[in-house]
TrEMBL record, chains A, B:
Species lineage: Bacteria, Bacillati, Bacillota, Bacilli, Bacillales
Record key words, sorted: Aminotransferase, Pyridoxal phosphate, Transferase
Protein name per the record: Aspartate aminotransferase
Source organism: Ornithinibacillus halophilus
Keyword Electron transport applies: no
Residues that bind substrate: 336
């Protein structure tokens, strides 16, 4: 094993691109200096293109969960009836935050590994006209499911006045998110997923409708008060000391997106998903999710004849390839491969080659070259 | 002016040491990996030495204000009577957070530039036996005042059962903070001050007494719930994705502290304070604070015959030396020099030399070499 080489293929954090590392090495500057203002001024329009919104986006120092909590506290009041669509660990987290803030929480619980059935949401909303907000996870990182956000948005806005609040944490930047066109009211994401930065920034984009609700909201909050962030970002500033190094990195990430072209970024993620899935199909190892709801950023595998954690241990020991395990009820049952952010189809070929060796070593009867050939076929078709 | 050279002498963020920059370049790792656990395991005991506490310290991704808010929400309930000692912008911030959470806020307002008179606190507490918590700023960054924390702690604990909650943001790591010995119940700090890291981490250390109050507290909070951080840090983990790059940097900062010796770190800050103050005394330019309450980390100057912002502009334009202006009621009246974190007595000689030239250029009648000689005398005495 080459010392100092780690192949990080978990669903976030992802490896950091060298040019982003270099950008973050910028000497420290004052957070109230003109240079910080200029940095924010450069970031703003490029960031809006990623969310496909014309509205202002709050940039907070914090983990993604801080962004999810900001979504809850700024858009709801204690006692409000809300619907949380729970498709895994992060839907569960939304529900827990809503419960902590004493909302009247209704849940649609979906079997982990499946996307929500939009008909269930439609029927629920028809019977619950006073729902103030619907919370959903775009890409459920714990299962690799991509929920049908655009369709959900149509259904929610047709059948209710609820705000549609989306956890976009392992989606935005890797999966198209047409916030304004699709009518998403609030989209949250974090820095360490498809935005390929270290963890430490969270983003909250809100629609005109959402800002109206937020403006009227007066429940106690201070650090997560989105109005403060909006007022400040309008003049290229932040209410509290921002994570300056991460902002330098973010600006570089956004430049990389412009250079590659956002459409190409999304296609690259689609391609990596297909390559990964085809390999497991060739090996005849079950995937947790159907093709129709598989996320372009993370793939979950649910083996029926070997221990996923034994495989993870093997490839970690032999090649320093890091895969993620299952969480909570899926612990010990699945493993997850992250293919987002600073990750290319070539990296996926490497990942699959190593997993293939790991499978053989774990005693699984696969033929060397079989999974990788399936992935190569996809790639050959795409790049011809 | 040398391109790419900025002399950042504001009271935080401070320049980042090269070895800390290098540490933060560590390739990204998974936040649930063994390597992250090992990193936290290394950080914990060294961090406790800085706070001089045996209790666990919560490490949160966020600005210092997130830490201040965590102090308020975890230790109080709506309607609680609290006392906030307001000596400047950051005392005011504590008051605003307490008001946002509907506490019954009593204030002791101190003229900006002065430390609180401990007798006022004693008298207040004797007349208000139901005060649940007293909030104070250790170093008030907006004025350069160091409040008498140890004496305040004695008075508070002798005269009440209140928790003593300290904003240590531009003090901890630059000024001794004997948390356990002095009986401080909660100490908050941020990464970008004397800890010489980029902004993005905040720390909350709590005493046994404080943890007991926190455990019983059940007001709605999620991301800032200190109990979650305590439970996790006990097993070398964090409840939410930590700012991994900053943790690598923090570990290196703490190693630098061990190498220099914490006592020497504090002496260096004292020395830089003295050198700075003696220069201004030699120039006959008034300092905002008395010697007896001057912070070792930041010095405020209140000129009576020139415009502080004109001086700041001159040294910025000519030498890229960045000084801070006054905030709120002191805007346009003072300027502030940060001498903390990655800053040495040699750097202070440079800063003073440049300010001296700036003063001459601004039309102030000072003799070249006069201020710097005063600072040199202090340094010569110290290093002889």
């Amino acid at each position: 094993m080459l010392p100092d080489q780690q192949l990080l293929r978990i669903p976030g954090p992802t490896p950091i691109p060298p040019s982003v590392q270099r950008a973050m090495l910028h000497p420290m500057i004052g957070h109230r200096d003109q240079e910080t203002k200029e940095l924010l001024r450069k970031i703003k329009p490029k960031l809006k293109k990623v969310f496909e919104t014309k509205e202002e986006i709050a940039i907070l120092a914090g983990s993604g969960t801080a962004g999810l909590e900001a979504a809850v506290t700024n858009c709801t009041q204690p006692g409000d009836e809300v619907l949380v669509i729970v498709t895994g660990v992060f839907g569960e987290r939304f529900a827990k935050i809503c419960e902590a803030y004493q909302l009247n929480v209704h849940r649609i619980d979906v079997t982990w590994g499946k996307a929500v059935d939009t008909l269930d949401v439609e029927n629920f909303l028809k019977g619950h006209p006073s729902i103030k907000a619907v919370f959903v996870t775009y890409c459920e990182t714990s299962t690799g499911v991509l929920n049908p956000i655009q369709e959900l948005s149509n259904i929610i806005h047709t059948n209710s006045d609820a705000l549609f609040i989306v956890d976009g944490v392992s989606a935005v930047g890797g999966v198209q998110t047409k916030m304004d066109e699709w009518g998403l009211d609030l989209v949250v994401t974090g820095s360490q997923k498809a935005l390929m930065l270290p963890p430490g920034l969270t983003f909250v984009a809100a629609s005109k409708r959402a800002w109206e609700v937020i403006e009227k909201n007066n429940i106690p909050t201070f650090y997560l008060d989105l109005q403060k962030y909006r007022e400040n970002i309008l003049s290229d500033s932040t209410p509290f000391t921002p994570s300056i190094s991460l902002l330098f990195g973010l600006n570089q990430v956004l430049d990389m997106f412009e250079k590659e072209g956002l459409e190409n970024v999304y296609e690259r993620h689609q391609l990596m998903k297909l390559m990964t899935r085809e390999a497991f199909k060739a090996w005849n190892i079950p995937l947790l999710t159907r093709d129709s709801c598989a996320s372009p950023t993370v793939t979950s595998v649910i083996p029926n004849d070997f221990n996923p954690d034994a495989l993870r241990k093997t490839v970690k020991n032999d090649f320093n390839l890091v895969l993620a395990g299952g969480q909570q009820e899926l612990k010990g049952k699945i493993f997850r491969i992250g293919h987002m952010g600073y990750c290319s189809p070539s990296d996926i070929l490497q990942t699959i080659s190593l997993i293939e060796i790991g499978l053989v070593k774990t005693g699984k009867n696969v033929m060397l070259g079989s999974g990788i050939a399936a992935a190569q076929k996809i790639l050959t078709k795409e790049v011809k």
